[in-house]
Design brief:
Layout: H1 7-13, H2 19-40, H3 44-57, H4 67-91
Helix pairs in contact: 3-4
């Protein structure tokens, strides 16, 4: 199997991490990656409703995603929509 190297760490420090160190970091970050994946597959409506439930009623319909992950995903989608609208507007002028 191919070795996985942390190139950002190498760029920052000039030191190559051992494959065992990288593998341990990957295993430690899996819960965070699973949370991000769960939020990314939610529709925008689901994200809005979940965030609204947390803000208005202090309750959660889904326990697999943090509030910060919901906000981050909604922000990313809003920025992409804004960029697309700006590009479309510029094409028509």
């Amino acid at each position: 199997m191919a070795e996985i190297l942390d190139l950002q760490y190498y760029r920052d420090t000039g030191i190559v991490k051992s494959p065992d160190e990288v593998e341990e970091e990957i295993e430690n970050s899996m819960p965070e990656l699973e949370e991000i994946a769960a939020v990314m597959i939610m529709s925008s409506d689901e994200l809005f409703v979940e965030l609204l439930a947390r803000v208005e009623y202090n309750e959660s319909l889904r326990s697999d995603a943090s509030t910060s992950a919901l906000i981050q995903e909604l922000t990313n989608r809003a920025l992409h929509m804004e960029l697309l609208c700006e590009i479309a507007t510029n094409l028509n002028t």
